[in-house]
Design brief:
alpha/beta, Rossmann fold, 4-stranded parallel β-sheet, elongated, disordered C terminus
């Protein structure tokens, strides 16, 4: 609930976060017309057109920077995130709250211009951008204006010094699923990983997690994300698995990070090479959290890390009801939660609303994706479940650990100040 052209636009690093988003791209053309939001006046939305007049109004102003006119699928994802932010705006009651939507065009220059305009209009907090290079471009502008940023990139290199990442970090996801696999008696791992920047990041996280939990990495193969590019690496991996079994040290789990761009090509190769997934458990990344993965029998029974899906289901239903019956991409929940957090903290006086102390509160927050705590280093601590792929959907086999007592936003966020 978390690849395509949009993933490549993320420079590869955030592919695991975008993977499930692309599974729901059919909804992207919906507009904010009709539906339950019609006529509601809780909060205010100001966009590029006519924003100069709206910017003169008093109230709490928070900017939402998204790549609304970026190339390819990125713009569709951005539009869905914008709609999710609008949904949060209307579901939480603070009439003085204004959401300033800015198009950062998916480029560092566009992000800089959007951030400068947001500062000029009096924004006290910036939500977004989505892409890591854009976050990097916005950061110095926000710091100079003493405005914090809650961004959606999962590249931890852009976090810190007033920039917080609400997204799911690859390191946390991989550690969660490896820890669960070891706890279930799986200690010897192999991996088939994309040969790109995302794969490099994921491989580092995988090796570190297996070492941390006292497992053993038997083999790692890298592949190019095309069918022909997967054949030889998969064959080599299978040969290594067979050799390890013959030598008395069988592999009992294979790590396959990826999403809907790659996994449909990997599954048939697993079956063709006769990897016994009843004995050798397949485990994945957060990118596995998309519809229809279980249609490929190779993945049924596999484990992957994801937020507890209960909050997502209710959000997805409300989103679909509002925007024409289609489900949102998984990543849309980040925008909803970011706007919800901003509204919940907006009740105090100017200068004390979005302080580092408030944003990094020990109790954290609870949103669509469950508990989250923003840390002083700019990363987010999250509670992740482990899900098991079923023929139709997935089920939770290990719920998130209650690592901290998060503040849940309800219909009355004012009570949370």
């Amino acid at each position: 609930m978390r690849f395509g052209a949009a993933a490549r636009a993320w420079r590869g690093v955030v592919r695991s976060l975008l993977a499930p988003a692309l599974a729901g791209m059919a909804m992207a053309g919906c507009a904010l017309t009709g539906g339950p939001l019609s006529g509601l006046t809780t909060g205010a939305l100001t966009e590029e057109e006519g924003q100069s007049a709206a910017g003169k109004r008093a109230g709490v102003k928070v900017a939402l920077l998204l790549p609304l006119t970026a190339p390819g699928q990125t713009a569709f994802i951005a539009k869905a995130m914008k709609q999710a932010g609008e949904l949060a705006l209307f579901e939480y009651d603070n009439p003085s709250f204004q959401l300033l939507v800015k198009d950062d065009k998916g480029t560092p220059d566009g992000a800089r211009a959007a951030a400068e305009q947001a500062v000029k209009e009096g924004a006290e907090l910036i939500l977004g951008p989505l892409l890591a290079p854009s976050v990097k471009a916005v950061a110095p502008i926000a710091r100079q204006a003493n405005i914090p940023v809650i961004a959606f990139s999962n590249d931890r290199q852009v976090a810190g010094q007033g920039v917080y990442l609400l997204s799911f970090l690859v390191e946390q996801e991989v550690d969660r699923v490896v820890a669960y696999a070891v706890a279930q008696g799986r200690h010897r791992f192999a991996a088939l990983i994309p040969d790109d920047s995302y794969g490099q990041l994921t491989q580092s996280a995988f090796v570190a997690a297996v070492s941390k939990h006292q497992g053993t990495v038997v083999a790692i193969e890298r592949y190019h994300a095309r069918v022909n590019g997967m054949l030889e690496p998969t064959k080599r991996l299978v040969e290594t698995i067979q050799q390890a079994e013959a030598e008395g040290g069988p592999v009992d789990a294979v790590f396959l990070p990826g999403g809907p761009e790659t996994l449909p090509n990997v599954g048939p190769l697993i079956a063709y090479n006769q990897i016994d997934t009843r004995r050798i458990k397949l485990i994945g990344s957060g990118g596995w959290d998309y519809a229809n993965l279980g249609r490929d029998a190779a993945f049924v029974g596999g484990w992957f890390p994801a937020p507890d899906p209960r909050g997502w289901r209710g959000f997805a239903e409300r989103f679909a009801k509002t925007y024409g019956g289609t489900a949102p991409p998984r990543i849309a929940s980040l925008a909803y939660d970011a706007v919800s957090i901003a509204i919940g903290l907006s009740k105090g006086p100017r200068g004390s609303r979005f302080t580092a102390e408030n944003l990094t509160r020990a109790s954290g927050f609870t949103g669509i994706d469950g508990p989250v705590r923003l840390l002083p280093d700019g990363t987010a601590e999250r509670g992740l479940a482990v899900l098991e792929v079923q023929s139709f959907g997935a089920r939770v086999v290990d719920p998130p650990a209650a690592v901290f007592g998060a503040t849940r936003y309800s219909a009355a966020p004012a009570s949370l100040n």
